[in-house]
Amino acid sequence: MNKDWAEKNKRMQSLIGKEASFREGLDVLFELRDELFGQISSIVKTFPAEAFYQMPFAGAEGYHSKTLAYSMWHIFRIEDIVAHTLIAQDDQVLFTDGWLKKTKSPLITTGNELKGAEIAHFSEQLDVKAVFEYCRAVMESTNGLLGKLEYKDLKRKFSDADRERLIGSRCVSNDEDAFWLIDYWCGKDIRGLIQMPFSRHWIMHIEAMCRIKNKLCQKARKGVDPIAYCGLSCNHCFLKDWCGGCRTAYNTCSYATCSPDGVCPNTACCREKGLDGCWGCEELSGCRKGFYAEKDINAIKAMALFIRKHGKTELAAVLDRLHQQNDFQKIQEVLGENLEQGLEILEQNRK
Prior knowledge:
Blueprint: H1 3-16, H2 22-46, H3 68-88, H4 99-103, H5 117-125, H6 128-147, H7 160-169, H8 176-186, H9 190-195, H10 200-221, H11 254-257, H12 265-273, H13 297-310, H14 312-325, H15 332-335, H16 339-348
Helix pairs in contact: 1-2, 2-6, 2-10, 3-6, 3-10, 13-14, 13-16
């Protein structure tokens, strides 16, 4: 389990367990949920449609054997059912505002009953963007419910009538791989449900989504030019294990994740001009687009100018030497913010 997420979850559980720190604990919970949801947002924003029904770990043991779309549906269907049918005893979000129709889901269940190819087929039928918005709506609804809780509510337990209401909703399949959920939920108090499914369940499945994402990115990068349009070398980037790069449809580079349609300004400009990279542009020296607009632009721009003079193969060789000599994640840490100094360092490391 991701160490930071696990520690934050542990801290949250400790805080909500004491009346004096209960509200602080809820704040930590909301912070954790926002951080985790950010992982989903990044994937949905930058990955192509086909990524959401791929199963790169098909047949494996664990949550990563599913698909990205299934994982999203499963996390938030469980949360929707538990938050509304069990705890609040009102309408699930799925059955309001036309979400079932919008998502194009053939199911109203958690999906636990699906196996192998059924998961991929189900995932392919979903409107991923609509599922994402449904997920957001569920998260916000649950946050509202949790925010109204009092410390005394944590020990609230559930009755046979609650169990029958869950069964009657038909939102949990009778399949043995799904039906156990009802007894599991009803065996918890509110505090237990805050852990599973409102926090730890998220962590488990979102970590699995990250594994799926990383595998898809690694597969996409095979045989693809590792030099990004801006001049960065994907093979020498700290994101290399979980980013497909801007020359693939699996781009999770930092600028891609915060740019329209997941395409950074440098990439968009090069594609528009039909350029292999910024080094082929006459406006490079004075350019302030994308990465070149940041404080440490000169490290990136120095590499683009170096490519213009010596080529991409030579840049890769120089970066290999720099990594052998220095322990760093970002090239900016070595080349600095001064363009001339950055170029000089690159030149000095040529053979």
